[in-house]
User: Fold this.
Amino acid sequence: PQAGLEVADIVYEEPVEGGLTRFAAVFQSAGTTVGPVRSGRTTDIGIFNSFGRPLYIYSGANLPTDSLLRAFENVSNRSYSTTSGYFREPARRAPSNVYTSLFDHWATGDEPAPRAQFAYRASSVSAEGAPAESVNVRYSANAVTWDWDGERYLRTQRGAAHNDTEGNQLGFENVVVVGTDVVDTGFGDSTGATVPEYPFVGTGPAAIYTDGVKITGTWTKPRLSAAATFTDSSGEVIELTPGRSWVHLVSKSSAAL
Assistant:
């Protein structure tokens, strides 16, 4: 299991080569030890730029990708090769054994508070939408289901509960599905599988699952540095339930939309 996802404020799930997915987790409210820390991806660019000046923690990347990631001056680069504070977890096998403490990174940073990514309802107001007791997001190598328990959506992947390091199933108040274009980066892994990019900039379809309902709408992000705006069919801003959010990046043709 991954360490730290249970206290992440937002988690972005992005497809990578072979139909697998990676998690880009955002932490502000609580610090902890996180891991395994894996490689940076070009899809991250459309995510981290919208937060203002975030600390971007990753284990590394191939040279062209790493050069591109380091070029963003509004992002504090905290890769394995440029920053101290990482360690190898002896109980895990490489490359899934790189860990770090968020407190170590926060102690050496003086970045401003991040830009808000969503609009939220008052906790006393119920969301309006089509009832949605479950959510299915099917990546080619990772089938994900979220089940509404009356307060949160609980995550299952590959037919089993997705648990944290304490054995508790991960639960989030909001599940946001964002449909983007899919771009061939021109890179491949050791098996020859193409490395895709899901650029989170521009506009596209969105589905918001919150408070046990589904709200279909559109996301708009005019530039990399802007936070996305989510609007319904009437053009009204979609407000999420106060709490934590899991964002799925998918192709614009995904059935989850």
